[in-house]
Design a protein that fits this description.
With 546 residues, the protein is mainly α. The protein has 24 helices and 5 strands. It has a 5-stranded mixed sheet, sandwiched between helices. Strand 1, helix 22 and strand 2 form a beta-alpha-beta unit. 44% of the residues are buried.
């Protein structure tokens, strides 16, 4: 040994190997990255297709970025908060207006939803393999699903991550010895308040999870926790409350009107749209814009599974009633609350006129059913697990018990295979339709370029043309809405109409072959006051003749 140098004992020298993720967790991470990557690729391919409603949120973000206004509500109505606009405003300030920039925050919200759902599944007692299954189901991206998750049209992308966060906070608040509690109460109240401002579709989950907290933590809520919760709830709803007081608006009446109270639909149509078409569309089992008959099998499976999962959770609660509030008991209570919230969301939609009048498009109101997936699939996973233990079940419970376990397990595997298979088939349909959607977006970009080359600053067009065009040009082109008969239409920003009306050289824009184009074609001619037409990539631009 060298003098002055102390040699470390050999037994204390240990090779440090990096800690490896368990296989199911690693697979869940890979599936999550694949799901986010798939959606990012869709965004670069202009999928899902944008529209003027999404552009309206983009215009709100543009105004926030410029400091021109700080809207509380989606322009033109007194409901649906503009949280998405505030999330996108910093990006638009940096990169300028585009659909991709507008949707990057919604993509981040989806990634957060996957992470929270994985964590929620684990906190509710699911093992890592079950958490992987939940992530795989939520990774599928059919037409209606990716529209709900990615289109920044107001309300839908933020509902699911916020709902999962509420459920996670509820678990933490109900488990004994949960640590620092006041920050969790504040977070619960703030998220619930913001959700009620953004979109009250999440209200059934807020009520069921809130009821669970009141039932199990009422003593705590009677003290400082209740004050903190109420204060945070008021802070979250502050934009809605302040605006309602200032302008005398009633957002509750506005939401009810949007649900279709003004136009009655037949009850048979409501029930068909809500209970037959609704669950498969919300789960992501249908092709773009339609639901084939074979894709409707989930309409039968969903209520059965909802009832079975609720019975399983209730049975666990009864079995553990009277004892200490264990993790198992809390998990069963939160699962039951999630299932009750999902049932409330479905019932409210099925009773609305929107389910009967526009069932395909209005199925977006069921987007937050995805929050309950960890609870909904629970009995299927519980039936699958004993398949590996059939022989031991035979040894302890007899041949009949083993046979029952095998039948239940095989049936559960079949349902889960149907969920993944049907969802994957619908996802493939989105990919197949992507080139056509991308081509339409290219045609719209050609329209924008042509208007710029012509020096056109003011136009008139249909509702689904106007705000999309205005946002795409960063308000370099302003558009006033007209109906097919050339009468003024619904302008979400009335200031645009005033500026267009003041321009004698304002042009008209219409899709080739549309009723509006046919009406404007009748005004073509060589005489002064007639219109000239410029055709570009499926669009017709009508210029006043001088």
């Amino acid at each position: 040994m060298t003098a002055g140098v102390r040699e470390e004992p050999r037994e204390t020298v240990r090779s440090r190997t990096p800690r490896r993720l368990p296989l199911p967790t690693l697979l869940a991470v890979l599936v999550g990255f694949a799901a986010v990557g798939y959606r990012l690729a869709l965004l670069f391919a202009d999928v899902p297709p944008t529209n003027s409603d999404e552009a309206t949120m983009g215009l709100a973000a543009l105004h926030i970025a410029r400091g021109d206004g700080f809207p509380v509500w989606f322009y033109g109505q007194a409901y649906m908060g503009t949280l998405e606009a505030y999330l996108a405003a910093p990006l638009i300030a940096l990169a300028g207006p585009s659909v991709l920039v507008l949707r990057l925050p919604t993509l981040a919200l989806y990634a957060l939803f996957l992470l929270l759902s994985w964590r929620l599944t684990r906190r509710l007692g699911g093992d890592r393999w079950y958490a992987l299954l939940v992530v795989a189901v939520l990774a599928l991206g059919a037409d209606r699903v990716v529209k709900n998750q990615l289109i920044a049209g107001g309300g839908y992308p933020e509902l699911n991550p916020a709902g999962a966060a509420l459920a996670l906070l509820t678990v933490g608040l109900c488990v004994t010895g949960a640590g620092a509690r006041l920050p969790r109460w504040a977070a619960w109240g703030l998220i619930a308040g913001v959700l009620l401002w953004v979109d009250p579709l999440i209200l059934p989950y807020v009520l069921t999870l809130g009821a669970l907290l009141v039932a199990w933590r009422w003593r705590e809520l009677a003290g400082r926790a209740g004050v903190v919760l109420a204060g945070a709830l008021l802070l979250g709803t502050a934009p809605m409350l302040v605006d309602s007081l200032r302008h005398g608006r009633n957002p509750v009446s506005a939401v009810l009107a949007a649900g279709g109270t003004g136009a009655s639909a037949d009850w048979a149509d409501r029930l068909y749209g809500g209970l037959v078409l609704g669950p498969p569309l919300a789960m992501g089992f249908c092709s773009p814009g339609r639901c084939a008959t074979w894709q409707l099998w989930w309409a039968l499976a969903f209520p059965v599974l909802l009832a079975l999962a609720a019975f399983t959770a209730w049975h666990t609660l009864r079995r553990t009633w009277g004892g200490p509030r264990s993790v198992e008991r809390v998990s069963a209570g939160v699962r039951l609350a999630l299932l009750g919230g999902a049932a409330g969301v479905l019932a409210a939609y099925a009773l609305s006129n929107a389910a009967g009048r526009t069932p395909i498009e209005s199925s977006r109101y069921l987007s937050c059913l995805a929050v309950a997936v960890p609870a909904l699939l629970w009995p299927l996973w519980q039936a699958v697990r004993p398949l590996a233990e059939v022989e031991s079940i035979k040894a302890t419970g007899g041949r009949a018990a083993g046979a029952r376990a095998r039948v239940a397990g095989v049936g559960a595997v079949a349902v889960l295979a149907g969920v993944l298979g049907t969802g994957a088939a619908a996802t493939v349909e989105v990919i197949r339709a992507a080139p056509a959607v991308h081509a339409e977006a290219d045609r719209h970009r050609s329209l924008v370029d042509t208007l710029g080359a012509l020096g056109v600053r003011h136009v008139r067009g249909g509702y689904w043309t106007c705000n999309r065009l205005t946002y795409a040009t960063g308000e370099n082109v302003l558009c006033a809405v007209v109906e097919d008969d050339l009468r003024p239409g619904f302008d979400r920003l009335p200031a645009y109409r005033r500026e267009v009306a003041a321009d004698p050289d304002a042009a008209w824009v219409a899709l080739a072959g549309s009723p509006l184009a046919a009406r404007l074609d009748a005004r073509l001619g060589p005489e002064p006051g007639a219109l000239d037409v410029v055709t570009v990539a499926g669009w017709r631009i009508y210029l006043p003749r001088r």
